[in-house]
From TrEMBL:
It is found in: Cell membrane. InterPro entries: LipidA_mod_glycosyltrf_83. It comes from Planotetraspora mira. This is Glycosyltransferase RgtA/B/C/D-like domain-containing protein. It comes from the Bacteria. It is a multi-pass membrane protein.
Length: 490
């Protein structure tokens, strides 16, 4: 049976002599080798350069800060946090620890994501070269490097860029195992699926794409694929068991998405509507031209649709949770660009114009995500203000107490404050009476909290704070509020 990925026409590069021509292999083969090498390394280097541009400019925000704080903490603290509420990120926290150990700067903490971004661009080019030729792979990898959504998560201390890389790797390993079956290849594929799930459980929606691809391409190889997935499932079982009991603490904020959320995701991939129109027009050409490679089109769209439909009953949809489809969208667009170029007799101006247009349309989005306050929280500025304005003997109160976990990522100004949130060595927050006793000798208290709302206004410590202290200043740093309270006249 002919493989669906083998049936893609391989179009030689423009100007390359055909096989068996008078110029022969001595002229053809070195040029092709150079093209094959450039087709995978150019996207990786481009992604490294684009992703590294301004990587330390935005402040760490709350999700990144949790990663940083946990990675810097003793292993005993990490075990407690993972066991109580964050098992789904355990593998990422372990991966991050060596980077945090060498100073834990913003650059080092974000470096794993940047490396993963460049490696994913390389993997897209390799996969594209195998499925549709080196130019399709080159275009797909370069488009991925230019997409603002992928670029943003290349600059974040979270696991999503790594998840995208592992999704690319798993898909390549599946193609390899189906074309040249062996026990070693299926074991490698099973391991990649297990790693994918350990980095993010919802990325396992990719397995459904792989199931369809296996059935349509190599029905006789369904059994070894099923066995590989079963092996991966066994490796994932401990995580599934623990994480299933933590969903409410992890995803309580998710709601049911609507079609507007779906459209917003498509727009976010490219950064804005005009860029999205160009990107998805090229992807549509890729779907049309490569109808015999359904794995790429399925990977690009099926997980997003599945997540959206599941979320109508059991909310799991968030754009970053389906970031792993962006490599497929880029590859599909790269195949489409190659198809358009081929239909126009391989004119070199076509891809050049396409990349100039995409680069111009996405440039403003790239600049925007590199603004100092471009993330939901500007914790660096908060820490700077707190450090400049605090006085000896000031206290600090986190309401709710989970704000301590991320707000202290820039830790220096917090070293000099009396923490009124918990009793020393205790996990539960102080009662109103305990707070009053702890704050008895203080004249000023800094409050770190979300914007005022019903959830924190009724907190007993906050009620006591407002009873004994008056508000002096109140500033917002994104979604985090820093307020100063001074004691009322005794």
């Amino acid at each position: 049976m002919t493989s669906v990925w083998d049936s893609i026409p391989r179009t030689p590069a423009a100007g390359t002599p055909p096989q068996g021509s008078a110029e022969g292999p001595s002229f053809e083969e070195p040029g092709r080798r150079r093209l094959r090498a450039a087709s995978v390394w150019v996207p990786a280097l481009a992604a490294l350069a684009i992703g590294g541009w301004g990587i330390t400019v935005p402040s760490l925000w709350r999700d990144e800060s949790v990663s940083a704080v946990v990675a810097r903490s003793p292993l005993s603290y990490m075990r407690q946090l993972v066991g109580d509420l964050d098992a789904v990120h355990a593998l990422y926290y372990l991966l991050l620890r060596p980077f945090a150990a060498f100073g834990g700067s913003e650059f080092l903490l974000r470096l794993p994501s940047l490396i993963a971004f460049a490696a994913a661009a390389y993997g897209i080019a390799v996969l594209g070269r195998r499925l549709a030729g080196p130019l399709a792979g080159l275009y797909g990898g370069l488009l991925y490097a230019l997409l603002p959504m992928a670029d943003r998560y290349a600059q974040e201390t979270r696991s999503y860029a790594i998840v995208s890389l592992v999704a690319v790797l798993a898909t390549w390993l599946l193609v390899d195992a189906l074309e040249t079956p062996s026990r070693r290849r299926y074991i490698a594929y099973a391991a990649s699926i297990a790693v994918l799930g350990w980095f993010h459980l919802y990325a396992l929606l990719l397995v459904g794409v792989h199931a369809v691809a296996v059935w349509t391409a190599r029905p006789r190889r369904v059994l070894p694929w099923v066995l590989a997935i079963a092996g991966a499932g066994i490796a994932l079982l401990p995580l599934v068991v623990v994480a299933s009991g933590q969903r409410e603490t992890q995803l309580f904020w998710l709601g049911r998405p609507d079609l507007g959320d779906l459209a917003a995701f498509l727009r976010e991939v490219a950064g804005n509507v005009p860029a999205a129109v160009v990107l998805f027009a090229l992807a549509a050409c890729g779907v049309w031209w490569s109808r015999r490679t359904p794995i790429v089109a399925l990977w690009a769209f099926a997980p997003v649709l599945a997540s959206f439909l599941i979320s109508q009953v059991y909310p799991v949809f968030d754009p970053r949770y389906v970031l792993f489809v962006v490599p497929a969208i880029a590859l599909l667009a790269g195949i489409g660009l190659h198809a358009v170029t081929t239909s126009l007799r391989g004119h070199i101006a076509v891809p050049i114009i396409a990349f100039v247009v995409v680069g111009a349309l996405t440039f403003s989005s790239h600049v925007e995500i590199r603004e100092p306050a471009s993330r939901p929280d500007d914790l660096r500025s908060l820490a700077a203000v707190l450090g400049a304005e605090q006085q000896s003997g000031d206290g600090v109160l986190f309401v709710p107490q989970r704000y301590r976990l991320f707000a202290t990522v820039y830790e220096e100004p917090f070293r000099h404050l009396t923490d009124l949130t918990n009793e020393p060595g205790m996990y539960e927050p102080r009662t109103a009476a305990q707070f009053t006793a702890a704050a008895a000798g203080l004249d000023r208290v800094w409050l770190i909290a979300p914007p005022a709302g019903p959830r924190n206004i009724g907190d007993p410590r906050f009620v006591e704070l407002r009873r004994a202290f008056k508000l002096v200043s109140n500033r917002s740093f994104g979604d985090t509020r820093l307020a100063l309270y001074a004691r009322k006249s005794r």
